[in-house]
Specification:
The protein has 354 residues and is an alpha+beta fold. It is built from eight helices and nine strands. It is globular and about 70 Å long.
Length: 354
């Protein structure tokens, strides 16, 4: 325990005791969780975020009349922006373009360009920037063909520093297509960048597999939960000894993202958008189709993170009801909204948000 632990405010100490490593004090004097989604910054808040989305994913597969639907696991990738090192995750090693047959010990080199001078860094960060627009166009295209389609999507970082997409797709059996037809309809979708007017498209590699909710459903949810664990880590490699080529690659990506225009009116040298710090990415890590007047949404029960936060807040308030007149100095885990507002205040002041 730290020697100065007695000087920590009670509210902050309570939040720290619940696992949050970087509590935030709001303007009203209440200590709340930092709400970080990155494990290396706050494992507790990142796990809360992952658990909420995993519950929503399960809700859209197991909490309704699943016999009326067909389910698919759809994977879409980004185009190539240059040749990279080929490092196997297991099994025999194919010969890499650098002339070597890499082993698992060279895992840190996976996704690093063979020729950085020829690699299209600007194109890659621009694709990350426009990936959300491309998915929106893909979603609309799929729904034009299969009106009952609902989805749960996880955006995962590939080793080269570009996003790809895993989506669980649900379609009513009366109109459910073969898996390869859905895959081709998604992969061939295109969009136009709102920033520079360029055409944005998926890479050639795509996969779509149908599965049964009462068979492979649990396995598929586990896979996406594992993907969530991965994307909540930092993009930087976790390897103990990192080759200098890895850092050069990440520095080049960061430099390209800082030079990139994130909107039609963006002046990169004066823009404070976080897009310039995320290798161009502006999309949320996870999302799902929402319930509307005309659509059931992904979750059969209408479960969202807003609902989960409300339920946790109601539970916390019920626990405080017998605490007398003493005003609580710490907010419950679900008050991420206050934390988000506080982070925006910090950013507005020019400080680094936790």
């Amino acid at each position: 325990m730290r020697a100065d632990s007695e000087t920590i405010e009670p509210g902050k100490a309570d939040v720290l005791a619940r696992g949050c490593s970087s509590p935030i004090k709001t303007a009203t004097g209440v200590w709340v969780r930092c709400g970080s989604r990155i494990k290396s910054k706050c494992a507790s808040c990142a796990e809360l975020y992952r658990g909420d989305w995993a519950a929503i994913a399960r809700s859209g597969v197991f909490d309704g009349p699943v016999e009326r639907y067909r389910f698919y696991l759809l994977t879409l990738t980004a185009p190539s922006f240059g040749r990279v090192h080929r490092v196997p995750r297991s099994g025999p090693a194919p010969r890499c373009g650098c002339g070597s047959a890499h082993s698992a010990a060279d895992a840190a080199l996976r996704g690093v360009p063979l020729d950085p001078a020829q690699y299209d860094y600007a194109g890659q960060v621009a694709w990350n920037r426009d990936a959300g627009v491309l998915w929106d166009r893909t979603r609309r295209r799929l729904r034009d063909r299969w009106d009952s389609l609902e989805y749960f999507i996880v955006r995962e970082w590939q080793d080269r520093g570009v996003l790809h997409v895993h989506a669980i797709v649900r379609v009513a059996r009366v109109e459910a297509p073969p898996a390869e037809r859905l895959r081709d309809a998604a992969r061939t979708a295109t969009a136009v960048s709102k920033v520079d007017g360029s055409v944005v498209e998926w890479g050639a590699q795509a996969q779509c597999d149908a599965f049964r909710a009462d068979g492979d459903g649990a396995k598929t949810i586990w896979y996406l939960s594992k993907a969530l664990n991965y994307v909540l880590k930092d993009v930087a490699t976790d390897a103990g000894e990192v080759p200098v080529e890895v850092w050069r690659h990440q520095v080049a990506l960061g430099d390209a993202a800082r030079r990139m225009r994130c909107s039609g009116v963006c002046e990169p040298q004066n823009c404070s958008s976080l897009v310039h710090k995320r290798f161009g990415s502006r999309s949320q890590v996870v999302s799902a189709s929402r319930r509307t007047k005309h659509r059931p949404g992904w979750s059969f029960t209408g479960l969202t993170r807003t609902v989960q936060r409300r339920l946790r807040r109601e539970w916390w308030e019920s626990q405080q009801s017998g605490a007398g007149d003493a005003s609580p100095t710490v907010a419950p885990a679900p008050l991420e909204g206050l934390a988000a507002r506080s982070r925006r205040e910090l950013v507005a002041r020019g400080w680094a948000a936790p």
